[in-house]
Amino acid sequence: MNTHHITVTEKGKQFWAECNGITVTTADSAMNAAQTLIEGLRPSLHNSAAFFVVNKTEPHMAEQGTHTFIVYELCGRCKKRDFQDSTGCHMPAQLNQQGEWQCERFNQGVTP
User: Fold this and answer.
1) Residue 68 pLDDT level (bands cut at 50, 70, 90)
2) Do 33 and 26 touch, CB atoms closer than 8 A?
3) With contact defined as beta carbons under 8 Å apart, do 84 and 101 qualify?
4) Fewest CB atoms less than 10 Å from the CB: which of 6, 14, 35, 43?
């Protein structure tokens, strides 16, 4: 399963998040910082990825200004969780000889 563990640190009135070399800062909430960060990762992820963000912050950690999130990467079309190959996809379409593929569940009759 593709998961991303994100720690958001509250400094003053800013929320800082970092994952895979990308850093974001927001002023509104820890959840928004995590969501903004995961959108920054999107170009390097599967073409139809959708994300399910779960707040795993314990109350005593939130009081200290540290928030923990787990982000589950899912196919936005068939909810497949592992993108290494097309096994388990409801309607995979092979794109090239290198094994790249995409989900075609809602693209029936549409040329990719």
Assistant:
1) very high
2) yes
3) no
4) 43
